[in-house]
Amino acid sequence: MFAKLPQTLTAPFGLLTDEAKLAFRSRPQGISKLYTTRHIAETDSYWDQYFTLFDTPSDVFSLISTHDIRRALLDSPENVATLIRVVTSRLFNLVSDHTFPSIPPTSVASYATSFMKTSSTERNATKEVLNSLRVLQRVLPVVFEVEGESNSFELEVLWKKVQVDEDEIVPTAPEQAPQFVIEDDDDGSESGHGSNTQSQIPQPKRTKTLPSLGEKLFTCINDLLFCCGFSLPTKIQVDHYKINYVIWEKGVGSTTDSGPNHAYDSNKTEVLRLLLVLLSRQIYIPPAALFTHPSFYTLHVVRKTPRRDVLTLLCSLLNTVMNSATTNNMTIASVAGKVPYNHLVFKGEDSRTALVGMCLQVLCVLLDFQSGPARDIVSDSGDATSSSPTAQTNAFRHFLAKLHRTQDFAFILNGIIAILEQQLAISNNLLPGSRRSVPYVPETIVLFWKIIELNKKFRAYLLDSDKTVDVLAYLLCYSLEIKDKPQQHGLCRALSYIIQTLSAESAFGNKLSSPISIQVPTKWVSQGASHGTAGDFMITSVYSIIATTSGSLNSIYPALIIALANAAPYFKNLSVVASNRLLQLFTSFSNPLFLLSDESHPRLLFLMLEVFNSVVFHHLSDNPNLLYAIITAHKTFEELGTFTLTRGLREIQRVQRIKEEQASQAERDRKDGPQQERVSVESAHQEKSRLLKNESDPAFTIESTSFSGEDLEAGLGGHEQTETRPLTSLPSENSPTTSTSTITATSEKARGKMKARRSLSSDTINGDRMAAAGIGRNGFLPTQEWVTSWQQGLPLDTVMLVISELLPKIQNLQAGRQKANSAGAITDFLQSVTLTDVLPPAPVLYPRRFMWSDASIVWLTSLIWGGVYVHGMSPLGIWNSTNVQLFFVKHTQPQQRQITDTMSSVVGGLFSPTRQRLERSSNQ
Q: Looking at per-residue confidence, does 674 or 577 come out higher?
């Protein structure tokens, strides 16, 4: 009875397979042979272990290090070339073999039977295919890194074509009818290497060029993505042809759905990961060479892939992403993911989440690629120039731009909104940190940007739908959520450009009067974010992003303020909070320390004035709250009209003196704490002396403004918002001043007399120059000529006309009524006011659209690949320890998650560090 049982149970049960894996690292016949033995033959049995030893992707990435591959490339490069050839050859043969894909066990009995089998001759073709993919994923990034901008090794191994005599024509599978057709004007254009029909006319001594190894690898990847029994259900297999190019799920171009399958999703993820590794060749090129050294791999995918394959793959990836938030797949992983704090106990992600994330990454990379011959074609249309992709430049961008069916647009928009809504619900959870954030929200936002950029019909559909306000709210909420995370500031910048793109459309402006329908997280309710119209929410959100980021997001200020300027002609019935936020932004932008610190800062002031002007010209009586706020802050506008460098520097110095006095006073209070009574008496005398001194100074009088903007100080570098107004006129630039040499030559007695009656402008030249040198950033030195150049161009006339007309009337209303009734009377008056006879005609609207440039394309490419790199760091570390050149990789120490303490209190302290230490000590 027991004679038939195997003598050793190591291999079938897999209980001791770690022994063979450890031997692969330590024994001479393992990985070390790759770089210690030269010229290993392709037929050597050494290569077999690369197909049978590994069980998971983690096995490959842990047993084969980047150091091993890098050393082999330096000491034995021919072995690395042989490894790539052997692995790809085995992969090609397995895909066409009848034993692939292997039928997975479907029951407990079949699992038990497979365990009891001891014969090593039975091959697991699916496992060998997966290991082939994994080995290539591990080897190729190191090859790309070592090669850098040189392509000699890759050209020889992967892209070398061989010409052979064509003696016979190999029959191929019949061409399938396309499942989804997009009308295209370029029907006669090149559609890929697989679309050329081979001639059946026999010709003597005819030669043909075989496809290179890289071309065959991409063809094999496409086949694996649509292989029945491996990535698709076997029920859709046609006859004996297991490769069936059908769209994976229902959605764009398909109404059928094969249903989710854990094994198929996992296999798709493995194949897409290899595709992403091949496309990652461009991250090893410096940004300056991104356009001149395009990646052969990405060029082949976007320009040489047959149209059928492009359409099927594009729709499959899109549908998988858009169905991710609405799937009804009730798996253990999906149910467990909804348990609070479950992600702190069980690491990793389910196969469906991994597949959706991989689909998004591949989509973003393919739709973003514009390098070399894949650059969009620039065309002149009237006064403006535009660029658009073609089937010859980038087929994926081209066919995405060709989508036109309304049901497809609705499906895509609903899918994107569902993902953003899912993320917002997690942020709005009653238990903070109880659920893991959606890991692919950044890629979803980039994909949305690409769709509205490439497909004008989809953009029009979005702006005409009733979901425009929801999309705006979701984007702004996510910006507020990530604004304090430095690693997400690149995404904040992308969000600001998306909002600017949408704001340039008139249909977007017409939606701003609609109310916000989504549930805004309570942490933003206190800022007035959950009340009012979409315009109110847009203004308060922009204010919060700028005011609470300590100047770390100053690169996105222009895009956000431009979005406000684009939308300003459509603002109606702005709330009191939104109106005050606009004035606080204006007050802070007009602060001298902010204005003089950078050459581009006056542009923000110019844009804020445009916001006020647009409201005045188009909806004056519909915005009484903003109009009243402008009139209340009239002194800020008046002082801006007479702003000079000297006045700005004096204000900065005065504010600095006040801060120094406050700091020294705080230090004295800290040191003399026990003697508080004596200090309070002395402080009172000091305060009295200081006030008398200020009153005796005829130059300045301190006045507080209505919009101090204290919460905006951090956002603009901690500027003091107290305004100063000169009561005496400043001397002209040409007036004579006392020179430094004269002061030096005078006697001490004369110098004391001069100090007593020194004029305000005695140090205008040298003092202002020295003070300005300490204000500007990055070597910028503000001058009076520079101040005059932008100060005279500020569009202040419209606002000053409004102030001059309405300020006296408001003052009369306030003087003639009681304080309780004056507010209502002023509001009624401003709602009925018309200034058409005073104001000039409204200018033509010219919205500022986001314009792509080489620098912005390189930036977005770096942002996309940076996100891909970070996702690949865990758990595999695909690109770890490789010399990436497209962007800078900064490694930081991981910080302990603060939510662990919260979880400890929820689950009874089972996971508290103190308890774990006590258990370890008791076990010892």
A: 577
| CA-to-CA dists, residue 43 to 49, 89, 718, angstroms | 13, 12, 70
Give the list of residues 6+ apart from residue 543 with CB closer than 8 angstroms, or none: 527, 581, 582, 584, 585, 712
Q: Is the pLDDT of residue 695 over 80?
A: no
Mind listing the pLDDT tens digit for each residue in 500-515? Answer: 999 999 999 999 999 9
The phi, psi pair for 529, rounded to 5°, reads: -80, -25
Cβ atoms 378, 386 nearer than 8 A: yes
Q: What share of the chain is helix, strand, coil (3-state, %, to 5)?
A: 60, 5, 40
Q: How many residues does the chain have?
A: 924
Please, what's the largest Cα pairwise distance for the chain?
A: 122
Cα angle 421, 425, 431; round to 5: 170
| Residues 146-184: b if buried by 16+ CB within 10 A, e if exposed | bbeeebebbeebbeeeeeeebeeeeeeeeeeeebeebeb
Structure tokens at 867: 């996100």
At 620, is the pLDDT very low, low, confident or very high (cuts 50, 70, 90)? Answer: very high
Per residue, what are the HEC states of 843-908? Answer: CCCCCCCCCCCHHHHHHHHHHHHHHHHHHHHCCCCCCCCCCCCCCCCCCCCCCCCCHHHHHHHHCC
Cβ neighbours of 581 (radius 10 Å): 28
Report pTM: 0.83
Please tell me the distance from the alpha carbon of residue 111 to that of residue 114, in angstroms, as a whole number.
Answer: 5
The region, left, alpha or beta by phi > 0 then psi within -120 to 50, assigned to residue 372 is left
Summarize the confidence of residues 324-347 as an average pLDDT.
57
- Distance CA(532)–CA(549), nearest Å, equals 24
Q: pLDDT by residue (tens digit) across 50-77?
A: 999 999 999 999 999 999 999 999 999 9
Two structure tokens written together for 762 = 């005695």
Decide: 813 and 829 in contact? Cβ < 8 Å: yes
Distance CA(50)–CA(46), nearest Å, equals 8
CB 278 within 8 A of CB 295: no
